What we know:
Layout: E1 14-23, E2 26-36, E3 41-45, H1 52-59, E4 67-72, H2 77-82, E5 86-89, H3 101-109, H4 118-124, H5 140-152, E6 158-162, H6 170-184, E7 189-193, H7 197-203, E8 206-211, E9 214-219, H8 221-229, E10 231-236, E11 251-257, E12 260-265, H9 268-277, E13 285-288, H10 291-298, E14 318-322
Parallel strand pairs: 3-7, 3-8, 5-6, 6-7, 11-14
Antiparallel strand pairs: 1-2, 1-4, 8-9, 10-12, 10-13, 11-12
Helix pairs in contact: 3-4, 5-6, 8-10
Amino acid sequence: MRKTPGDQPAHPAVRLTAVTKSYGPVRAVDGVDFTLAPGSTVALLGRNGAGKSTTIGLLLGLDEPDSGTVSVFGGAPAQAVRAGRIGAMLQDGRPIPRVTVRELVTFVARTYPRPLPVDEALDLAGIAEFKNRRADRLSGGQIQRVRFAVALVGAPELIVLDEPTAALDVEARRALWDSMRRYADRGNTVLFSTHYLTEADENADRILVVDRGRIVADGSSEALKRRAGGNLVSFDLAGRPTEGLSRLPGVREVEIRGDRAKLRTDDSDATVVALAAMDAVRGLAVTQSTLEDAFLRLTDPTGNTTTGTGPSTAGAALVKETV
């Protein structure tokens, strides 16, 4: 269970206020506002080019915003970095050749004012068993865990992970996330971006969805799933007409695939009762909306992104015919 800090923190771990950043004609970050509480684990989700990496670069002090403010523990990001309060695990970077894992982590530890004991960092990252091996001869999953050890050896209160499990196999991802949970359980703050929605669903207390440089959703995984439309009710049409399905209780969207109907509904019980009254329950299945459902609806590439807390059009239902 995650520890709760004994003292009330004076400042949030991260605060971005009306932040913008452009590269030529491209507005990579467009008025981003969010605050991260100390001790939270937060996922940053978005399609490629949505603005995730730019946002991360700004809060790490790797770039300056065109407008707005970025603060980390109440000060400038660069100040927090110098104090060792931020650790980062970015996508780029190769291990230094001809040095062991322990030598590499020890070298990095010496650059911080109050580092973790090296053996403690190795244990937290789950790499103690191969600490005497050369870093440039490790597998991809092992190298990622070495990068994690490098990011946390400075004893940061905030760690930022940009696609930490990209290109890793299932076993390596599981091992890396086990290490990250052990770090978070100490009461530290974790911000990570990922394309693996299951990782966000399983590990994040809170999810920020970025699209076109803006935060389009902010909440728990369960809250985002509810926004996608509580549950999916599907059944075999068996030759029955589809007229009236969009007017059933709770239904906000109807999709027809061949001889099967899929209803997205806010009240699956009421929808099923209504279908039963129509004698239309053959092959019935009720499933919960997934985080992927929510993500796809929030980041609609056609530009129909919904930023409210309820249905995009109250009481409306969309009927889609899929060939």
